[in-house]
Amino acid sequence: MKIYGRVQLIAGINLIAYLAALYFSTGVHTGFKLDDNQLIGYMACGVLLSLLGISLAVKTMAKRKV
After folding, report:
1. pLDDT digits over 36-60, tens only?
2. How far is the C-alpha of 45 from the C-alpha of 2, rounded, in Å?
3. Beta-carbon contacts of residue 58 (< 8 Å; ≥ 6 apart)
4. What's the rounded Cα separation, in Å, for the pair 36 and 13?
5. Phi, psi dihedrals of residue 28, rounded to the nearest 5°
6. What's the burial of 6, exposed, middle or buried (CB within 10 Å: 0-12/13-18/19+)?
7. What is the pTM of this model?
8. Euclidean distance between the first and the last CA atom of the chain, given in angstroms as a whole number
9. Burial tier of 24 (Cβ tally within 10 Å: 0-12, 13-18, 19+)
10. Domain ranges of the chain
């Protein structure tokens, strides 16, 4: 179970890094911007966020059963 937590931690760190890359790639003081070149990055962040949320929910349900 410790390895599972490490994988979740690494996925969370990667999500933060991806979001920071998308934020800073748009330029100075522009923030998040939906561009056709960045759409794949936003989709990847969405998939990673949903998978991380589902895995956290499954982990907490497994702890409740024990």
Report:
1. 778 888 899 999 999 999 998 988 8
2. 24
3. none
4. 25
5. -80, 130
6. exposed
7. 0.77
8. 13
9. exposed
10. 2-65
CB-based contact 65:56 (threshold 8 Å):
no
The owner of tokens 């760190």 is 13
**Residue type at 61?**
M
Which tens digit of pLDDT belongs to each residue from 18-33?
Answer: 988 888 887 676 777 7
Secondary structure E strands in 1-66: none
Helix axes 39-65, 2-24, angle to 10 degrees: 160
CA dist 46 → 3, 14, 37, 42, 64 (Å): 23, 12, 16, 6, 27
